Amino acid sequence: MTHEREERIRQAVPADVPAVEAVTDAAYRPYAERIGVAPQPMEADHAANVAAGRVYVTDEPGMGLVGLVVLEERADHLFLDSVAVHPDAHGRGVGRRLLRFVEAHARALGLPEIRLYTHAKMWDNQEIYPKYGYEPVERRVDGSYDRVHYRKRLL
What we know:
Layout: H1 2-6, E1 9-11, H2 17-35, H3 40-43, H4 46-51, E2 55-60, E3 64-73, E4 78-85, H5 94-108, E5 113-119, H6 123-131, E6 135-142, E7 145-153
Parallel strand pairs: 4-5
Antiparallel strand pairs: 1-2, 2-3, 3-4, 5-7, 6-7
């Protein structure tokens, strides 16, 4: 059963762009008021990310596209730019499945670690990432974003 669900993670195609935008917006909009600016994933060029092969999506029967990750392969790590799960799919293991996919993808690419960051006011994320083996390495202000940077070593 688990393996079958993992197989539903696939690279996004241009027809997915409206759903990628909708899921990203639904996932990040609740944070906009808390952090005082639109979270960076809401401002992303989703069509360009899909065209560049950076977006992977997952669907649920009867719900359509419910989650996605945006990845960027770098020389010494895989950068996890965004994880978005539609609020209607919370509690269904979508985020866990996506994080497992990211780890498997990084390993398949031979990369020794995954890096990501989250806004310092996204407290819930700061509780979640350590549960999946991510360790905080730095807190840094980048423009209007106060970010906590994480990494997960794979090798």
